[in-house]
Amino acid sequence: MNLLDQAKQAVQGMAQAVMTKAVALAPDSWVPGGQPDPLMHSKHGLIGAPVSRLDGPLKVTGKAAFAAEFPLPDMVYAALAYSTIAKGRIRSLDIARAEKAPGVVLVMTHHNAPRLQPPPLFLSEEKAAAGDNLPVMQDDRIHWNGQPIALILAGTQEQADHAASLIRATYIEEDAQISIAAARAEGTTQSQFMGQPLHNESGDAEAALAEAPFKVDATYTTPRHNHNPIELHAVTLFWQGGVLRVHDAQQLVTHSAFTLSRVFDIPEEKVIITSPYVGGGFGSKSLWQHHILAAAAARMAGRPVRLMLSREGVYRIVGGRSPTEQRVALGATADGKLTALIHSGLTVKTPHNAMPEPFILPTRSAYAADNILLDVRHVELDMLGNTFMRAPGEAVGTFALESAMDELAEKLGMDPIELRLRNEPEKDPTSGLPFSARHIAQAWRTGAERFGWHRRKPVPGTVREGEWLVGMGCATATYPYYRMPGGAARLTLTSDGHVTVDVAVHEMGMGTATVQSQVTAERLGLSIDMIRFNYGDSTLPGLIMAGGSQQTAATGASILAAYDALKKELVALAGNSSPLAGLKPDEVGSRDAGLCKLDEPDRYDSYAAILGRARREEVRVEASPPPPLETMHWSMHSHGAMFCEARVNIVTGEPRISRFLGSFDCGRILNPKTAASQFRGGIIMGLGLALMEETQFDERKGRIMNANLADYHVPVHLDVPEIDVIWTDIPDPHTPMGARGVGEIGITGTGAAVANAIYNATGKRIRDLPITLDKLL
Ligand code: MOS
Prior knowledge:
Blueprint: H1 3-25, H2 56-60, E1 76-82, E2 88-94, H3 96-100, E3 104-108, E4 141-142, E5 148-154, H4 157-165, E6 168-173, H5 180-185, E7 189-190, E8 192-193, E9 196-197, E10 199-202, H6 205-211, E11 214-222, E12 234-240, E13 243-248, H7 253-263, E14 271-274, H8 289-301, E15 305-308, H9 311-317, E16 324-332, E17 338-349, E18 371-380, H10 394-412, H11 416-422, H12 440-451, E19 464-465, E20 468-480, E21 489-494, E22 499-502, H13 512-524, E23 531-534, H14 551-574, E24 588-591, E25 594-597, E26 600-606, H15 607-613, E27 618-623, H16 630-633, E28 637-649, E29 655-665, H17 672-691, E30 697-698, E31 703-704, E32 722-727, H18 750-762
The structure holds dioxothiomolybdenum(VI) ion.
């Protein structure tokens, strides 16, 4: 570890100590000093109503403008040329033909690019957003195969693409570390995630395993994955009087604006990012090199620039998921009690990022076992920096853990659901914290009943329909509750009874604006059409990323904080003639476009009357919620029980999924329509993880060989069966609105549910993803 890393760790350690002290003083509520959010119990209002997406009509009529759909006067189009070696130096770069090509305005290379600062790496500081921390086009060095070596600006996209194809480079190659086996032979490193070592140990797991009467000890492998959101990564940007304005596709507008300001060494407020609509993100829509290069080129050319990556471009410069090799070893007594739980193994990162795939995360809170050993190590390879990809850790970690649980159940001759229920922990097995709410047993029971689990034949390979072997499998889904610090929101109440919410959050297609409008309307006692929700703009309040399935909680907490500030202001404004006179802000709540005494609703004053008497056109407040102390009081997770029916063709080996059910326990469901889409979307991505997705990485050249959707397979409609989703809808008393995250949990557990169903169908245990037909023949 270098000095800088040591210093960072020390700072994180101190922050941890301060938080721990504060936690000891905080009462038993998500808001220290406060009560559970009353909205978690509201039964008849907008919370829990299947409100259709407010942006739906704009999307289906083509009126929602995405990042590459802002036409600007005098705009030029950008294309990138990419390196074809993994490591070394550029010996020569021939740009003469490109410069003479029709329509070309600028060819930018390391020879003429402006001097830039390296982008701060995501999580290295509060507002950092970069996927890697490399300065680009600042010298002749190549760090990965696919690194941009030239950017062309031209009058049309076709002209730019053509000119990019005319660039010729020669290289002085250096030995690159691109083979996992070769790197491993030189030694592995203990991995960290968000400043903490990926290592947990209690008791003596190896000794307990050795003594266990029943055991499983197997290795599970998952390949590299790349991001494929439908909307390609794109920016349309321009410089205006020293201000960089960016139309972007973003999951973290405020972080990314800060990061760009560092790269160009300008004040933070001189970068403004807007991102009203995003066509999928899944962890990939942070800050990558195309932002930096497009902004640099726009400054050089003095013209607006549109840079939309090609699909190949997304594979070349936007990171994906690291490969993993995971050992899961389970020891159990004859009645299915786990005595040893080992989950360890190897993944990959680069020297320029901080994202080893943290596959042990789901195992930390999964099962009661006296002896636990969890560990992730990694090797560093010269390749594109990897990144967050839907449920980083849990998506592939649950494949290994939950496949192993299925294997153990068979050895014990026990139903796999029963095995899981017998190992339900009383409290978090690694942190020792109580669970904030955990109703996974109920999710299992209701799911099993609805799916018809009792019809499953425990002996594999015994159900056949024509050419197809049929099987059922199940697995646990899990994803943590997070609420990151930095939230804030602004509320403006006007005398005509409208409320405007300003908060820098994101709409990637999950229904953010819709659900938060529901939350605001119900909190303020207004109808939803009185709410205007402004988001997707780095100049708005709040540092809230659409990541970690935490945007809903972080935004809802910010709106609640602003609401409390608004009540305070209104009670003060109400005056002595108000029915509210003499009341304290926490004695009042909202109903019917006004405030009332909580236990005496007839003592009511409308917002319009309060503002009218005070001769105010509007009241405006901005506030931040308390720090996320709840996550230090409790072990907080969304839970789920996944059920899969798979068919495998006895002639071709082709696997097909015929039915799927996700039974979820994610706290209060705020909008069943948008939540169901999140669950289904996650499960569909999980089917891709189980059966199709695999980045082909050439270990001789370090190049991604299938950088397109013809060769990198994701599920299409014909691959997706009927997917049923249900939920417990039991509020979590320790979260805003009683809700926990729903965005990522769907991809977790799905890989194992599929693998376990395929085993039940065929008797073939596939421990290596994706499960393709060649492995089943
Ligand atoms: Mo997610 S991988 O936190 O967008």
